Amino acid sequence: MKVLVFCALVAAAAAWPYDSVNDDAGGASDAQKQHDVNYLLFKVYEDVRDENLHKLGETFDPEADTSHYSDNGEAVHKLVKELKDHRLLQQKHWFSLFNTRQREEALLLYDVLEHSNDWQTFVSNAAYFRNHVNEGEFVYALYAAVVHSSLTKHVVLPPLYEVTPHLFTNSEVIQEAYHAKMTQTPGKFRSHFTGSKKNPEQRVAYFGEDIGLNTHHVTWHLEFPFWWNDKHEGYHLDRKGENFFWVHHQLTVRFDAERLSNHLDPVNELHWEATIEEGFAPHTTYKYGGEFPSRPDNIHFEDVDGIAHIRDLIILENRIRDAIAHGYVTAHDGSTVDINNSHGIDVLGDVIESSTYSPNVEYYGSLHNTAHIVLGRQGDPHGKYDLPPGVLEHFETSTRDPAFFRLHKYMDNIFREHKDSLTPYTKEELEFSGVAIDGVSIDGPLETFFEDFEYSLVNAVDDTPQVADVAISTVVSRLNHKDFSFKIDVNNNNDHEVLATVRIFAWPHNDNNDIPYSFNEGRWRAIELDRFWTKLSPGVNHIVRKSTESAVTVPDVPSFDSLIERTEAALSAGSSEVDIHEFVSAVGVPNRFLIPKGNSEGLEFELVVAVTDGKADAAVEGLHENTVFNHYGYHGVYPDNRPHGYPLDRRVDDERIFHDLSNFHQHTVKIYNH
């Protein structure tokens, strides 16, 4: 791995670099913006390693000219006042988004960045407040702002596991990294998953502890944050509640598929009055603030001081289940909101999370967010030992704890109760007139394997510009699969071209006792493999869809080292862009996880392909012009009118309806692991 040496501040340009390329109101090119974001996040606990950013951090006055803010400086005045009044969280202290005050502080900075009219104001504020606010709050605010600001549409955020490695890396490896730094000895250290072979959950630790999956989870919550306020932010996050349901439903069914691949039963749901059977020892340490708390086996839920009583969570659950049974939720003003329809899942997702979109947060509470805190605090529910937050109180680390999936199976079962209350689709609703699937095959093996992945720990250790960096990294085993393609033959018997939506799913053929799943049970366990739009000409259409093109997955984000190298090369060549556009969205699951692990004998899955009416499905024009889009993180109007999981999202009382559809195909495949 190439060593980045920063013995002195990087002198990219002696003068302000934003005057030469006038690509937006800020006068900065995409390459310059990428450069600035790279260095704002590089060694975030140390002084910034760029001369211009360092100068801005020392000399910029955020309140000097409020005409550069869309809110006339209202946000920056609030933040500066909090800073001058010494009310902000100190630096070198842990940060958790679930901590109300800490979240408010991070969002104060986010508001300043979001209300910056141009890049010079944006980056100047970022450089200035990097020196003054808590590092965790700074990282969150900057990531959220880059995700949502119109100024940063083409900026690729560095992988969080290299920005804040402590949250993703075992403490034993971090200790070895410190030793390597202190002795100036390059080191590459092997990371191991938590637990031992005595713990059955160790068999699936490669899934929950995968740094790509961790990144997917935290990135989705950055794209669709529960604190989002339309009036304040200026636009609506379309179908946010339904997206919340679907992304966590998919995590849950994918985890169950991995368990079946490793001869484990599907995960059982947690319940407030039942024992938490599996404990968890994170083996991770905060950069500042001590170790992540552990949780022993076989404990009962206790009230968490200052957060919630267990009985309150039971009451909230009962209120939500009552709403499902009645088919409506009661809004804050006493009116009713009908949920007995396709839109109901969106309302229910807002209620359960809950987000600011909830019709009545005072009555239905915040079941999901509160549950994360309560479960995360069970190692020290009364604050007796003054422990820092648990892994479930960070979106970056939540999936490391197997209890995360038990918690979300509990939530998922509530969602299913609603979905199963809806009237099943009729054959007429599912048909696509004149369109038939003639055949589906797979080109290439459905085969998974484990590979080594290396990432840098340079940002994990304390540093000074006077001491050269040495190459310090860790290697972790991760799941991947061989490339393959879906080959789908579709016959359009109409005399004209039609727009079609191709939806591909797979679910386990058998449970862990080798008993086949019924169609209705299988469809709820379906993993979405792809969803895309295409035009069908009259006659036979041969569709080839590569696994690397899946709309539900994303490639690995380039390493910090690679991002910096590519950006500096573009700037040196006088280019205004960096060729990294395919990495702008990091919301999907890693492409490596497109299919489950399978096993050496070949684990059977039911492969399902549905071709539906694209004209009826489309919520926006021109879908066929861009057949690759990540539907987990789509900005603006959501492009698919259909519910997530369609046509498998509602209960199926008679599976013959599907088997009689010409636009529906199902056959059994095997996934191998070698």
Automatic annotation (TrEMBL):
The keyword GTP-binding does not apply. Residues 401-412 form the Tyrosinase copper-binding domain. GO terms for molecular function: oxidoreductase activity. Keywords: Signal. Residues 1-15 form the signal peptide. PROSITE patterns: HEMOCYANIN_1 (PS00209), HEMOCYANIN_2 (PS00210), TYROSINASE_2 (PS00498). Pfam families: Hemocyanin_C (PF03723), Hemocyanin_M (PF00372), Hemocyanin_N (PF03722). Belongs to the tyrosinase family. Hemocyanin subfamily. This is Tyrosinase copper-binding domain-containing protein. It comes from Cherax quadricarinatus. The lineage of its organism: Eukaryota, Metazoa, Ecdysozoa, Arthropoda, Crustacea.
